[in-house]
Amino acid sequence: MKKTICILASLLTLGAAHGQSFLENVNLTLDKGIEGVYAKGDTTKVYAEVDKETPALVKVYENGQYQGKTEALLKAGKSLVFSQAYDAPTALMVRLANPANQKDSTTVGAIVAPEEFRPGFEEPADFRSFWAAQLKKMRAQKMKVKLTPVEVPGKDAENYVCYDLEVNCITERPVRGYLAMPRDARAHSLPIAIFAHSAGVAAPFARTSVRKAVSLAKYGNGAIGLDINAHGLLNGQDDAYYKGMEQNELRKYSSQPVTDHESFYFRGMFLRLVRALDYLCTLKEWDGKRVLVTGGSQGGAQSAALAGLDPRVSMVVVDVPAMWDMGGSLKGRSSAWTKPLERQGKDSVAAQIIPYYDACNFMRYYKGKLVVNVGLIDLTCPPAGVWSVYNVCPASSKEIHPCAWKGHSGKYSVSTKEGRSRMAKHMGTYLEKAINGYL
Length: 439
What we know:
Structural class: alpha/beta
CATH superfamily of the largest domain: Alpha/Beta hydrolase fold, catalytic domain
Number of domains: 2
Number of strands: 17
């Protein structure tokens, strides 16, 4: 690629730190607007807007790799602070930081020729047969289902029913979640909508809830909604239960050493999803056609796994999906969470096991509808990796929506609280519209 980085703000030797927060007082923009997508040879231009003269460090990252920094003085108003043309696929981030406290910063991202990115891992020759054997073993176990009615709060109780669901599985813990649907639904009238949770154990966003299950049941004109616990944990327990699991059995579950298939944590998580769908498809209310799976981060990894393992999945809607290109470092860029090669090395046993769990190899077999949100300043689930998986997926229809200021976990590097809220609503609209439009 062309190495013609041009930092256009005035350069100086910096003195006293600027006392105000960069995130709140420096507005970074691109000449391409919200999506930040460039063709090869285009010049990527980054602008900074400030109210008064402000010292800054301009830091540049390419494909997740730090390229260096330059000292600069931002003049009041709008200044062009970065300009460069690239002749190869590149995920770019430009960060402006407070010289005295570099954690105080604001960042914008761009991506060049994203359609050319490809995953770091190739598909193992026995990928399909490996998973076929796993599913055969699981389905050989007779299904045992426990459904316990639970109270639906408020006025929703008039129109929806909900159950605490448990289904046995060959994994250490069974399928567990809340199942909801419209009350008195007709046979063969409802699609299935499964929500897969992002990473965590004790945090509220990692737990199942009746409220979430009912919200799934409200999709479209009504749905069979399943809010599934990623770990097979009990529903509706007190904080002590979940904190205990987080601190003991599930402590650092995502970063445990990868040594073999049987002990790799995500094998169980993925199998429980298929087991759950096996059960849901027995319900008389299912329309026999539509199955949606959705989630963000780790939920995006689960969505990809289910879509690749079960052809009944017809719609996948994901936000900043994790485990989409865990072999990115093999291509000289940052890998996706859980980043096993960074921990164990490119020549470790992890490099032999992880391709069986990378979204790139599941999504090679998914032929339904696909909608993806991607953050161009996401270091947890890097945009180059997300795009690499998107590019190899033969979906019947697919769309990807990038955001130049979107990071991970719902964070937006926009200068005002109002602006961040507006940006979150804008990106969320893509997902909501896709889900309700399909269901």
